[in-house]
Design goal:
Blueprint (H helix, E strand, L loop, with lengths): L1 H34 L5 H9 L6 H12 L4 H7 L9 H25 L3 H9 L4 H29 L3 H7 L9 H11 L2 H25 L2 H4 L1 H7 L1
Helix pairs in contact: 1-5, 1-7, 3-8, 5-7, 5-8, 6-7, 7-10, 9-10
């Protein structure tokens, strides 16, 4: 039980913080991209979405180059006594990077589906831009944003490659569920590996089901509707 509880609690902590950071960054950038009218918008979106398609080890390498002890930002942070390598905070950073695009894509789609006339009507009534975002835009996009947040949590919970490269596998400190599964298989402990796999799988199924329920029905059934027409 001790071998199970520590990786589970650490994974939940890492996934929770990573989801929070991904949500804040993703929603903010998604709103900016949804309102930015430029030929460079799609290019920026593609760069920000790279962690979704790049191999996790590539992302881990990039993070080491940036935040390693000899990295561009690592040396600067070291002057302040901050070291992210082989720490759970490093695991949070890795999980944030790979989960962030899921929030970005879902939130941007939700923002772009909002009828511009509703925003214009609020402006005519004298609503400030800040109030417009929090009282009109954000509530209308909340379902799509929350769906992306749930997907980001599931992605952060299952992150392996980038986390292993920058945070390592230190039992009780940086060994998350995914890494613990790998270590259990390597050690030949099939019982522990099976139990951990079932926990992760069940959690992800529940999260994906919840996220699918938040997607608007017209978006879920768009393909089928076209087929009927």
């Amino acid at each position: 039980m001790h071998e199970l509880s520590i990786p589970l609690l650490l994974s939940l902590k890492v996934a929770g913080w990573a989801t929070l950071f991904a949500m804040v960054l993703g929603v903010g950038l998604a709103f900016g991209l949804s309102r930015w009218r430029s030929v460079w918008c799609d290019l920026v979106d593609s760069v920000l979405t790279l962690p979704l398609v790049l191999p996790p080890t590539v992302m881990g390498y990039y993070l080491l180059v940036l935040f390693g002890r000899r990295g561009w930002l690592g040396e600067f942070l070291a002057r302040w006594g901050i070291d992210l390598v082989f720490t759970w905070q490093g695991a949070v950073m890795a999980a944030t990077v790979v989960a962030f695009p899921l929030v970005l894509k879902s939130a941007r789609a939700a923002f772009e589906e909002i009828d511009p006339q509703m925003e214009n009507a609020a402006r005519v009534l004298g609503v400030s831009e800040t109030a417009l975002f929090f009282r009109v835009v954000l509530p209308l996009a909340l379902r799509g944003i929350f769906a992306g947040v749930l997907l980001a949590f599931a992605r952060a919970l299952g992150e392996f490659g980038a986390t292993l490269m920058i945070a390592g596998s230190i039992p009780g400190r940086t060994q998350t569920l995914s890494i613990a599964i790998y270590e259990a298989v390597q050690a030949g402990d099939d019982g522990l590996a099976t139990l951990l796999v079932l926990i992760v799988s069940l959690t992800c199924v529940v999260v994906l089901w919840a996220a699918s329920r938040l997607v608007p029905p017209h978006a879920r059934n768009a393909t089928g509707v076209r087929g009927l027409r």
